[in-house]
Design a protein that fits this description.
Length: about 100
C-alpha cells in the first residue's frame, strides 16, 4: 500500500491509524494508550520511528500528517473566522 518513490500515501491509512499518527505527532499520548497494531503498521510504513521519549514521526510521517484534514481551529484558511462569526450569530439569538 505504498507508492513506489513517494513513500506511503495518506489514503493507505485507516481512520484508526490516522488517529494514532496524530497522537504520535502531538506527542501527548503515552505509548500504552495507543493501539499496538497501528504503531506496528506505522513503523512498517516508515512513518514513525523509536525515539528516546517514545515514537516520533519520520520525515515521511510528517508529510503524511501535514496532509491529514485538520480541525477547524487549526486550519490556515478563513474557515475559523467563518465559524466564529456563525457562533457569535447563534449566541446573539434571534434578532427582532
Amino acid at each position: 500500500m505504498t507508492s513506489s518513490t513517494n513513500g506511503p500515501r495518506q489514503s493507505a491509512l485507516t481512520d484508526e491509524e490516522e488517529v494514532t499518527l496524530r497522537r504520535v505527532a502531538f506527542g501527548e499520548s503515552e505509548v500504552k494508550a495507543m493501539r499496538v497494531r497501528d504503531l506496528a503498521r506505522l513503523h512498517r510504513l516508515q512513518l514513525i520511528e523509536d525515539g528516546k521519549d517514545g515514537p516520533r514521526l519520520t520525515a515521511a510521517g510528517r508529510a503524511v500528517f501535514e496532509g491529514l484534514p485538520k480541525a477547524v481551529g487549526l486550519q490556515k484558511s478563513g474557515r475559523r473566522d467563518d465559524l466564529l462569526r456563525h457562533m457569535e450569530h447563534l449566541l446573539r439569538g434571534p434578532q427582532r
